[in-house]
Every structure is written in structure tokens, then in C-alpha cells.
Design brief:
By secondary structure, this protein is an alpha+beta fold. Helix content is 27%, strand content 24%. The protein folds into three domains: 5-73 and 110-209 and 314-381, FAD/NAD(P)-binding domain (3-Layer(bba) Sandwich); 212-311 and 390-423, D-Amino Acid Oxidase, Chain A, domain 2, CATH 3.30.9; 442-600, Phenol hydroxylase, C-terminal dimerisation domain (Glutaredoxin). The strands form four sheets. It has an eight-stranded mixed β-sheet with strand order 6-5-12-13-14-11-15-18, sandwiched between helices. Strands 1, 2, 8, 9, 10, 16 and 17 form a seven-stranded mixed β-sheet that branches. Strands 20-19-23-22-21-24-25 form a seven-stranded mixed β-sheet, with helices on one face. Helix 1 runs parallel beside helix 9 (341-360). The chain starts with a strand and ends in a 9-residue tail after the last helix. The mean pLDDT is 88. The protein binds flavin-adenine dinucleotide.
């Protein structure tokens, strides 16, 4: 018998792509005991995904990870759309930037996936976590015992890991004959997350189906430095030629990525492509045809290339027993048109990280994880719907005039981007009513959408009038941010309401005392920030840093529009920002107990409360 190494861990993450790395980084930063494994011998050198949406940049900024991406990446400030011209070539139908109608701090950016992963790995290293590679799971078992599953301290998931030898391929079928004890390890985990990509081993081990269609759309992708007379080569471009579509993505270091729809390639009966039958010059030849009348020189070299088939599918479930979960490409696949792959994936990780931290700290019951499945699977379904509509509109013939029966009008094409701008940029992603999204009282902050991310805004620190971007006060540190907007406190009624909040928070029944665990710092779960329209004595505050004012700055014309931009009146409001930056609830200033009720829906009260 082989004697196996045995170990325990709180969270085992399988797969160190953008999803697994962001999740591991976030968990490690939250002090969670986490391990991350990957089957590759080394990290990917070039290629794969590259587009980062404004919302994803906000998220990365909240983890302190955006700087290296913004420093090295390309930015997109304009886009163009091309459609068939009467002479059989292409002509520009649109040049604008409709992707960003709403306030956000960032423009779209692009950077190769490997450099993005490097930023995450460097950040993780600071918390003592490194990717273990090449390592694969070869067996996974979840305990059937209800008692074990219900015990927060238990390790109900058993995973057998195999360290691969140099050059060894991942062929699970032959593992039995190759096993050597020193290469195997039995890990007992509280939670396992499969972030192992579109062909997820974890998903298959759990028996979770992918629901949807494997389309016959085949795309070639080439990264190279272009020589061309095409005028918009340095912009995000969607091109529909009479022969097929292509998408242009400007990139770092003079590179451009071109996605080319390969309409004449047959997919075999198993739905797979034999990549060995193609080379990047085949893809360029097709692109040259689509670019006509513009010329694209055949590149001397390529930074990266690939060819793949698009599936538009979503996993039927994101978890089994709330102990093994899947995230990222393991749960959803779609076309590259909306540039969503890596963004949707990293946002899965962001949604899951704080929930796992709460459950592991026993601050919340395991049922909090149900909201991960509900929120992110619903988003993925909307994403597939959007993808289908986007592919249909962008690939359709543009009508010369309304009398033509087939095709879309120029207006419909332009509207596609405008209508879905919130979705494409990630800014308008909406989580629906649940234990962590209370949609009552929308009129108290009329310009906020409860369930969407809290918009940015400028406020001044009361103590020294230093301007702050609110988002910089909402780091992803797993805490709920409780924004108290007292309104016009020159009105004695408003002042009395503010004082009543301070009194309530000092009482054992108030949410601050009720849910902060015994022995933990007072701000362990709740970061209370007051934003007033007038100077107030700092009675409510644990620290001067937490008092802000909505006023114009002395040193520039910024500030003074915060209440108006959120649609909050002089009667004030309390706004709860979840640890992932989404609006969880809005309450009336004199109803702080409603906030307590909201938290009691998913947080454990301290035992003596
Ligand atoms: P991935 O980035 O796929 O990462 C999964 C990780 O899990 C990988 O590091 C993999 O090595 C590891 N893994 C897989 N199986 C196991 C296992 N059994 N054990 C241990 N580790 C495992 N997106 C685009 O937008 N444009 C593109 O051109 C593009 N090209 C791609 C080309 C390839 C070859 C691949 C694989 C993906 C491509 N993508 C592309 C998709 C894009 O990379 C993903 O949408 C995005 O990276 C999602 O991240 P993820 O971490 O969920 O998955």
C-alpha cells in the first residue's frame, strides 16, 4: 500500500487563471487559509484573454491591483463599426464611444492575460500564497453526512492531488498505473473551488451539465504588430464584411488583436477542431479578404494565435452542497464579441470571495453561498442572451434603407452598443432581491439602483477638506460600508435622528454591537462613514477619518454634488454597500433598526446578543 501525504486546508482552488488567482488573492488578503493548484508547468507566456472592462478595473482597484494593469495596458477611448459597402468591401458606419454612458472612473483597457495574472501572483505572494504547479486533482469526494456538512469546522471535501513530473501530460485514465506515493497527497478541505476553465475537471467530477448550445461559429485569433492602411486599427472595431466578421482590439506594446470569424471551416462531429491543421497565416488570409478595400500586410511574426469554437452555455448549477463551487469559464462560455470572458470570470471570484470569508469565519451560515449561485448564474444567463443578440446584430447585413427586408439599420446597430452599455462595461450589472439585496425604499436614494454597484462620487474629509473619491473608501476588505447621510442637520429634526443613530449603535440591540463578534474590533464587519452637507461635531465617529462633507473643494471646482448625484434629499438616508461594492439596501435615517433587520437575514448575531 502507498502511504499518502495528508493535509487540511480551508479553501482549495483548482486552476490559476484569472478566476482562481483573483479568488486566491482575495481570500489570502482576508486571512483565509487557501491553496491554489494548476496543471500547467509554468504560467501562460502570451495570448488568451485581454479585455478589462471599467467595472472590472473598479474591482481590481478596490483590491489595490489596478495600477500595474493601467500602467502597462492599452486604453480604449473610441470604437468604430464597419459594414458592407456597395462595392463589395467594407465602410465605416459608426465612430463613437457609446460603451460608457454612466459615471465610472475608468476606460476599457487591454493587456495580455499573462501580465494580468502576473499582477495577481505578485499580490498573492505578499500574503504568502504561491501557485502550486504542475499539480492536478485526480479524485474528489464530498461527505454525505448531514452532521459533517452542517458543521462549520468540518473538512467534508476530500481531494487527491497528483504532482505531475516534468513533461507529463494530464491523462486521468492512466494515473492508476503511474501513481507514486510521493507524488500524491490527500487534501481535506472545507471548501473547494473549481476555477479550471472551460473544460473544467471539477465540474465534470461533480456531474454538473452545461446548458445551451455549442454553436458552429469558429474564430481565429491573432496577436501581431499590424502594417495596414485601415484607419481605425488602433481602436476597438467591429467589422462585418460581406464575407464574415472580425473584431479589432488595440493592445499594449504596439500589438493589435484581431478576432476573425472563420465561416468556411467545418467542425467535426465531436464538435472539436484539429488546431494542428491551421496556422496563423490561414487566419490572416481570411482577415485580408474581410478588410477589403483596405490592405493588411502579412505579418512577419505573431505574438500569439489560436483558433476555437464558440459555445453559448451556462452550468446548470454553480455548487454541490455549497462545499464545492465552480467559477469563471468553468461555468459559462460565449463569443468574444462583448469581450466578457475574463471580466465575467473575475467578477465571479469577487462575488464569491467575501461570502466564503464570512462563512469560514462563522459570521454567516453556509446558506449565504446560495446567493453566489443565484447572483452569478443569473448574470451568466443574461450574458448568454446578450451574446446571442449581439452576435445577431453585429453580424447582420446593414440595410441601405428601410425598404430592404433583411438586415439591421444603422440606428439599430448603434443602439445595440448604447442600450447594452451598462452590461458591456459591467457598470449596470444588477443583482436581484435576495437575503443580501433589500429592494425596499428606492426613492430615498432615487438615483441609485439597489443591487447595482455604488456609483463613484467626490466628497471632502471634514477635518481638512481633502477631496476623496468614494470608491477609494470602499476597499475590498470584506467589510460592509455603512454610509450615513444625515441630510440637513441645521434642521433640529434631522439632528435628532442622527443623534438617535449614535445612541442606538451604542446599545446591545443596535446592529453594530449585535453582529460584531465578541473580542473583534468594533469596525471588524461594519465601516461606518458619515457624509453630511454641513459641519457636524464628531460624536458618531470612532475616528475623524470617517466624517465627510458634500461641499465644493477650496482648491478646485470639485465636490458638492454627492447628495444630488445619489438622489438623496435633505431628509437623508442610510446606504449599505456590500463588501463587493454593490448596494445592499437603503434605509430611512430614522429607521436604523431596518438596517439591523437586513443584517439579521444573513449574519449570525453574537451569542450573548
Ligand atoms: P482559464 O483562463 O481557462 O484558466 C483555467 C486554469 O485552470 C488554467 O490555468 C488551467 O491550466 C487550469 N486547469 C485546467 N484544468 C485543470 C486541472 N484539471 N487541474 C489543475 N488546473 C487546471 N478569451 C478571450 O477573451 N479571448 C481569447 O482569445 C481567448 N483565448 C483563449 C485561448 C485558450 C487556449 C484558453 C484556454 C482560453 C482563452 N480565452 C480567451 C478565455 C479566457 O482565457 C477566459 O475567459 C478567462 O481567462 C477566464 O478565466 P478562468 O480563470 O475562468 O479560466
Amino acid at each position: 500500500t502507498i502511504k499518502l501525504l495528508e493535509s487540511q486546508v480551508d479553501v482549495l482552488v483548482v486552476g490559476a487563471g484569472p478566476t482562481g488567482l483573483l479568488l486566491s488573492f482575495a481570500l489570502a488578503s482576508a486571512g483565509v487559509n487557501v491553496r491554489v493548484i494548476d496543471k500547467r508547468e509554468e504560467r501562460i507566456p502570451t495570448g488568451h484573454a485581454d479585455g478589462i472592462h471599467p467595472r472590472t478595473l473598479e474591482v481590481l482597484q478596490s483590491y489595490g491591483l489596478a495600477d500595474c494593469i493601467l500602467r502597462d495596458g492599452a486604453r480604449m477611448h473610441a470604437m468604430a463599426s464597419y459594414n458592407p459597402s456597395p462595392d463589395g468591401g467594407i465602410m465605416r458606419s459608426l465612430r463613437s464611444f457609446p460603451l460608457q454612458q454612466r459615471a465610472t472612473l475608468f476606460q476599457q483597457a487591454t493587456l495580455t492575460q499573462s501580465r494580468i495574472e502576473e499582477c495577481f501572483r505578485d499580490g498573492m505572494k505578499k500574503n504568502g500564497v504561491e501557485v502550486e504547479q504542475p499539480v492536478v486533482p485526480i479524485a474528489l469526494e464530498i461527505s454525505d453526512s448531514k452532521a459533517i456538512l452542517q458543521s462549520p469546522a468540518s473538512h467534508p471535501v476530500k481531494v487527491v492531488l497528483k504532482r505531475l513530473r516534468p513533461g507529463e501530460t494530464v491523462d486521468h485514465a492512466t494515473f492508476a498505473s503511474q501513481m507514486v506515493g510521493s507524488e500524491l497527497e490527500v487534501v481535506r478541505a472545507k471548501y473547494v473551488v473549481g476555477a479550471d476553465g472551460a473544460h473544467s475537471w471539477v465540474r465534470r467530477a461533480l456531474g454538473i451539465d452545461m446548458v445551451g448550445e455549442a454553436t458552429n461559429a469558429v474564430w481565429g485569433v491573432v496577436d501581431f504588430v499590424p502594417v495596414t492602411d485601415f484607419p481605425d486599427i488602433r481602436m476597438f472595431c467591429s467589422v462585418t464584411s460581406p464575407h464574415g466578421s472580425l473584431v479589432i482590439i488595440p493592445r499594449e506594446d504596439d500589438l493589435v488583436r484581431v478576432y476573425v470569424q472563420l465561416t468556411e471551416i467545418e467542425v467535426n462531429q465531436t464538435g472539436r477542431l484539429d488546431k494542428s491543421k491551421f496556422n496563423p497565416y490561414d487566419i490572416i488570409k481570411v482577415a485580408q479578404r474581410y478588410f477589403y478595400p483596405y490592405k493588411l500586410a502579412t505579418p512577419k511574426s505573431f505574438d500569439w494565435w489560436t483558433i476555437y469554437i464558440i459555445g453559448q452555455r451556462v452550468a446548470s448549477s454553480y455548487s454541490v452542497k455549497n462545499r464545492v463551487l465552480i467559477a469563471g469559464d468553468a461555468c459559462h462560455t460565449h463569443s468574444p464579441k462583448g469581450g466578457q470572458g475574463m471580466n465575467a470570470s473575475m467578477n465571479d471570484a469577487h462575488n464569491l470571495a467575501w461570502k466564503l470569508a464570512y462563512v469560514l469565519r462563522q459570521w454567516a451560515p453556509t446558506s449565504l453561498l446560495n446567493t453566489y449561485d443565484a447572483e452569478r448564474r443569473n448574470f451568466a444567463e443574461e450574458l448568454i442572451d446578450f451574446d446571442k443578440r449581439c452576435v445577431k446584430v453585429v453580424s447582420a447585413k446593414v440595410k441601405a434603407d428601410d425598404s430592404e427586408a433583411e438586415g439591421v439599420t444603422q440606428g439599430e446597430l448603434a443602439n445595440m452598443y448604447t442600450t447594452h452599455a451598462g452590461f458591456i462595461s459591467g457598470i449596470g450589472i444588477q443583482y436581484h432581491a435576495s437575503m443580501i439585496v433589500n429592494v425596499s425604499n428606492p426613492s430615498l436614494a432615487a438615483n441609485l439602483v439597489i443591487g447595482q454597484r455604488l456609483p463613484p462620487g467626490i466628497i471632502l474629509r471634514m477635518a481638512n477638506f481633502r477631496p476623496f473619491e468614494l470608491h477609494d473608501l470602499l476597499p475590498s476588505d470584506t467589510r460592509f460600508k455603512v454610509l450615513i447621510l444625515p441630510g440637513d442637520i441645521s434642521d433640529p429634526k434631522q439632528k435628532a435622528k442622527l443623534n438617535a443613530i449614535a445612541t442606538r449603535l451604542d446599545q446591545p440591540e443596535g446592529f453594530l454591537k449585535r453582529f460584531t463578534p465578541p473580542g473583534a474590533p468594533e469596525d471588524a464587519i461594519f465601516d461606518i462613514i458619515t457624509i453630511s452637507t454641513q459641519m457636524i461635531p464628531p460624536r458618531l465617529l470612532s475616528h475623524w477619518e470617517k466624517a465627510y462633507i458634500d461641499a465644493e473643494s477650496f482648491c478646485g471646482r470639485i465636490g458638492g454634488k454627492f447628495y444630488a448625484s445619489y438622489g438623496v434629499s435633505n431628509h437623508g438616508a442610510i446606504i449599505i454597500s456590500r463588501p463587493d461594492g454593490y448596494v445592499g439596501m437603503v434605509a430611512a435615517l430614522d429607521d436604523v433598526d431596518a438596517v439591523g433587520e437586513y443584517f439579521s437575514g444573513f449574519l449570525r448575531a453574537r451569542p450573548d446578543a
